[in-house]
Design brief:
With 281 residues, the protein is of the alpha/beta class. The chain has one domain: 3-Layer(aba) Sandwich (Rossmann fold). Helix content is 35%, strand content 23%. The protein contains eleven helices and nine strands. The strands form two sheets. A seven-stranded mixed beta sheet has the order 3-2-1-4-5-8-7, sandwiched between helices. It has a two-stranded antiparallel sheet with strand order 6-9. Helix 5 links the parallel strand 2 and strand 3. 40% of the residues are buried.
């Protein structure tokens, strides 16, 4: 991880409140595809303020949420006081070997030191368990959404870059993917929080942030949404991969013992242009 990447990754504590107010949650069907409909033991890594955690808990999963930024974790604990939490990073997971059915990361996998994190994730997964990843990406095929993206910034990641580190690690099998569209309602206040929640904006000085907010508000006002707000289209891009069999692993006694999704819903069609514009955490 280079120094600039590290600085961006460490910027989220300063924006925790804006992140919680401005970022969208995740569609239920996406969460079911990622983790499954049957109750599972789930370790969430890079949980942030609990956007995904809330959905996992609502589905009845036994969730242990981890997050390295104390400010983000404080909000998660405030929002979900009954959920087990630990301040920890993906590179040092606070659970025993082969102890969880699913490890899930929302808007965070790209911040991990993968050489250290992937062996840790494989270590804690039970036989047949899987890693699940998700990013909410604005649908920038729509011109006005693309204009908003140009204002607040995007970081590009080829779809194949998600799968390659998993496959090349030798720790995980075939990477499945699915896409689920949804909408976020935003108004003049929450669109400012959306801007302030971005790592590239957090690293600007005060004058730079104020100038960027002024640009975005002018864009919002030009579209005449006013108090009614606007509906911002997103696609929830999901990935999952089963941990490979390791020495000492035993096959489950039956199909019900296998962790992971059961009979997932068929995914909705998503972008097919070969490139994902990741709305990084």
């Amino acid at each position: 991880m280079d120094e600039e990447h590290r600085r961006l990754a460490q910027s989220f504590g300063s924006m925790a409140d804006a992140y919680d107010r401005g970022r969208p949650s995740f569609p239920r069907e996406a969460v079911e595809w990622l983790v499954g409909k049957q109750p599972a033991t789930v370790l969430e890594v890079g949980a942030g303020t609990g956007k995904l955690t809330e959905q996992l808990v609502a589905l009845g999963h036994d969730v242990h949420a981890t997050e390295p930024a104390q400010e983000m974790l404080d909000i998660l604990r405030r929002n979900l006081p009954d959920t087990r939490t630990t301040r920890a990073s993906a590179e040092e997971l606070p659970v025993p070997d082969r102890s969880v059915d699913v490890v899930v990361a929302a808007q965070s996998f790209h911040w991990f030191d993968l050489e250290r994190a992937l062996p840790e994730i494989a270590r804690v997964l039970r036989p047949g368990g899987h890693l699940a990843l998700v990013w909410n990406l604005r649908n920038e095929k729509i011109p006005w959404v693309r204009k908003l993206g140009a204002l607040i910034g995007n970081q590009e990641l080829l779809a194949k870059d998600i799968a390659e580190p998993l496959v090349h690690s030798g720790l995980f099998g075939f990477v499945e993917d699915a896409t689920f569209p949804f909408w976020q309602d935003v108004n003049r206040e929450t669109i400012q929080d959306l801007v302030l929640s971005r790592s590239n904006i957090a690293l600007l000085d005060d004058d730079g942030r104020e100038a960027k907010l002024a640009e975005v508000l002018a864009f919002y006002d030009d579209y005449g949404r006013g108090m009614d707000g606007m509906r911002l289209p997103y696609d929830s891009h999901c990935y999952r991969a089963v941990v490979v069999e390791r020495p000492g692993d035993q096959a489950p006694d039956d199909a019900e013992a296998t962790a992971g999704p059961r009979d997932p819903e068929p995914p909705n069609d998503g972008p097919d242009d070969g490139m994902l514009l990741i709305d990084f955490k």
